[in-house]
Amino acid sequence: MAFDYSLDFPNIDFRQHPELYRVGKGEQGVLLVEPYKSEILPYWRFKTPDIAKESSEKIYKLFLDYLEQDDFVGADMARKFLQMGYTRSRRYANHKSGRKYKQNSETSSSKKEILPYEVDPVKAESAAIFKTKWIEAKTNEKYQKLLAKHKQMYEINSH
């Protein structure tokens, strides 16, 4: 179920049209799918472990609220924000600048040079906090059932 980047995202309300939503891989579309992006993004923070804890708990609560409403798209978007909290804070934990690759115009895009690791234990702790909530979300039984149902609906409608 590849993410469809060709959709008119600024003009689609995915709460009204969940049939248009595709899960994709990882965090694909996390900053495109409305109204969920606007509902979740204000809470997405990971600068310190305390901020990450508060943020991940709020986003996880939104995840559970979406599940309670059988709103798979909202739950999946909350899951993506939790995953992105992990991946972004992990990147900052490994690279102080938040950049993984060296910026060099002479290097072709296929041979990007990875910057050396500068481990930041504070960001690593933030990453661990988000990872716990992300795993909790993606393994949630109701989420798994709604995911299977959504994939089945997509397969039926695409034939």
From TrEMBL:
Any Pfam family: DUF4385
InterPro entries recorded: DUF4385
Taxonomic lineage from the root: Bacteria, Bacillati, Cyanobacteriota, Cyanophyceae, Nostocales
Organism: Amazonocrinis nigriterrae CENA67
Protein's name according to its UniProt entry: DUF4385 domain-containing protein
